[in-house]
Design a protein that fits this description.
The complex is a heterodimer of chains A (105) and B (155). With 105 residues, chain A is mainly beta. Chain A has strands at residues 6-12, 15-21, 44-51, 54-61, 70-76, 83-90, 95-101, 103-104. Chain B has 5 helices and 9 strands, in the order H-H-H-H-H-E-E-E-E-E-E-E-E-E. In chain B, strands 1, 3, 5, 6, 8 and 9 form a 6-stranded mixed β-sheet that branches. A 3-stranded antiparallel β-sheet of chain B has the order 2-4-7, with no helix packed on it. Classes of the chains: A mainly beta (105), B alpha+beta (155). Chains A and B meet through strand 3, strand 4, strand 5, strand 6 and strand 7 of A and helix 1, helix 3, strand 6 and strand 7 of B.
Chain lengths: 105, 155
């Protein structure tokens, strides 16, 4: 089980400024560990962000996205108290969903 | 995941709406997630093939796309890249690191009020142009900016 994401959603006018940090090694498949063994490819392939259950962003990634990826986005027509939910799935089929409530700034 | 599905069901409010959403790729199982991943694009070794996989071969240069990235990256494993599109009805933003072994780094589809903006961080193998490819009203636009890498190396 991977560590929880950190999600912060702050309202600016009617736009929610959403900042997500996912905990994931994002291995490129080229790196070698201390013993010289190649660390296998392991990376988040898909991320879906929903606002009150409605999909607002559907992302597809390669292994070029950095370790413990950050994803920032902005959602118009948001209100304080509404929910932002984030789900990622990696190339091994592991997945994780976390939620946050939109706060006033 | 179950929770997300349930709240989505509540929102969709009916089997017909659900079927439409599923057809549109908005409701997906882990298997279909993997299937919808742009394998051809992400395994492309040259930007031209990556653009082809997006259907963006004829992308038009646009000054309405702003790429925010450092001129010189201090850490090649963590290059912050933000893309802001001022093109109306921006529905998709892709980021391409031209000289990476696999240039296509990410594609972001926006819907339901998400603005034409995204920020993330990339690994870059060497000094290279970063391309932002934007889809708006079904048409493709592109902008480029160079990021210099002082110490090389992916991963």
């Amino acid at each position: 089980m991977s560590d929880p994401m950190r999600i912060r959603a702050t309202l600016q006018g009617d736009v929610a400024d959403v900042r997500i940090i996912m905990m994931h090694p994002m291995e490129t498949g080229n790196r070698r560990d201390a013993k010289g063994t190649v660390v296998p490819l392991h990376f988040i392939q898909s991320v879906v962000v929903t606002h009150n259950g409605k999909p607002v962003m559907d992302a597809q990634w390669s292994q070029a996205v950095s370790r413990n990826p950050r994803l920032f986005l902005r959602v118009k027509g948001a209100k304080a108290g509404e929910r932002i939910s984030v789900t990622w799935v990696d190339n091994k089929g592991d997945k994780r969903t976390d939620e946050a409530v939109i706060a006033t700034s | 995941m179950k929770r997300a599905r349930r709240s989505f069901l509540k929102f969709a409010g009916g089997v017909a709406a659900l079927a439409t959403a599923a057809a549109a790729g908005l409701l997906r199982t882990a298997e279909s997630w993997a299937a919808s991943w742009n394998k051809a694009g992400f395994e492309s070794k040259v930007p031209a093939d990556a653009l082809k996989s997006l259907g963006a071969t004829n992308a038009i240069e646009s000054r309405d796309i702003v790429i925010t990235a450092p001129d010189i990256a201090e850490n090649s494993a963590l290059v912050p890249v933000a893309v802001t599109s001022r093109i109306p009805n921006t529905q998709q933003i892709s980021i391409v690191a031209e000289k990476n072994p696999f240039p296509l780094a990410a594609t972001f589809d926006m819907a339901n009020g998400a603005e034409g903006y995204v920020r993330t961080d990339l690994k870059m193998g060497q000094t290279s142009d970063i391309w932002a490819v934007v889809k708006a009203d079904g048409k493709f636009y592109v902008a480029r900016t160079e990021v210099k890498i002082t110490v090389g190396g992916c991963g």
